[in-house]
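Q: What would this chain look like folded?
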Amino acid sequence: MKRRILLHTCCAVCASACVERLRSEEIEPVLFFSNHNIAPKEEYDKRLEAARKLAKSRDVELIEDTYDHHSWLKTIEGFEDEPERGKRCERCFAYSLARTAQ
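A: My prediction, written as structure tokens:
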């Protein structure tokens, strides 16, 4: 039996290379799509659909988190104007990885 790993998936493009690499190392990924930072909802849905297509084409399990942009906005409140790679990103990563761990 292969080892399995839950892989937080922000988009299909990034996940595709990860799926191949993990499988080459005898690790079976399970994709976890959880991206509450993406807005508007139409953009989120577009990325989710791409993740679904990837999962289907590569025969990989996909777990979909429930979209909750409001909760994410509360998490980054006060840090909205931070530059990329700043304090907002730290909060966003912590939020996303905590949901993945749950």
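The chain has one domain: 3-101.
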